[in-house]
């Protein structure tokens, strides 16, 4: 059975990530798109119906699933409208910008008996799958410090972009933060407390473009960090009682999708060997190269198809799990310094 899909918003995420994944999956057909750029849509999806008004998409009979790829502050409105119209819903991260809005959507999904899930695709990054496997193996011993960095060299901001503005849901905490908070929660669960630091470091932007979160888990610390003034920091640093792990580079899948590479191609999700991580035993100075697992964003849509069509299994990411990410963000903003 093919699930018929309507995409609301055709920016980078809708155009490259979701469309690229769905076109590679036999279980989906994109039938409609809400966008003001019909010509851009039809270059990629020549048969899709295109409308500027998102209500035209959620009301269509040939749409079973709505994917919300609009600016963060609009996620609640668009997801609610889709659920009320009897559609299953995928919301791009972040789920919502307010915890109360997330609770309302969860209640609405329960009332309408529709699937509501959030696209935390970074659970299927190859480097994260590697970290998850390495920690579970016990090779590092008891984890004492976990660091996750997504730093970029982008000293010049694009002030015309909504993500650079001082508005609800903008800034790097809502843009990059949800992925890496979600990964932290997958590995360690809810922290005892969070300490947070934020800053606006670039002259041309109004939104937060630097954050440093420290999550406390007993005597273990998980550090999530993002800056636009470096790209030479490791993606992961993990210190344990039996060894350390150091990993540079970022998962290739997003760039591959933007280059129109099919997720079904043999090399999709496979990282360059030069970026494999290193296990270090400080006691002996011995090192070991750790091969990066193959990334698999398409797994999200495999699991979702199974859930919608057969009712089997769980949603790829439950809305309740995604709401925990927003709770961490709200708590970080409450206690943080900017």
Please characterize this protein's 3D structure:
β1 (3-8), α1 and β2 form a beta-alpha-beta unit. This protein is an alpha/beta fold and 338 residues long. The protein is globular and about 65 Å long. The chain folds into two domains: 3-119 and 299-317, Rossmann fold (3-Layer(aba) Sandwich), CATH 3.40.50; 122-295 and 327-335, Dihydrodipicolinate Reductase, domain 2 (2-Layer Sandwich). The strands form two sheets. It has an eight-stranded mixed beta sheet, covered by helices on one side. The protein has helices spanning 12-23, 38-44, 54-58, 75-84, 99-112, 126-137, 172-175, 177-188, 253-258, 298-310, 319-335; strands spanning 3-8, 28-34, 49-51, 65-68, 88-92, 116-119, 143-149, 193-199, 210-217, 220-226, 236-240, 244-247, 277-281, 286-290. It has eleven helices and 14 strands.
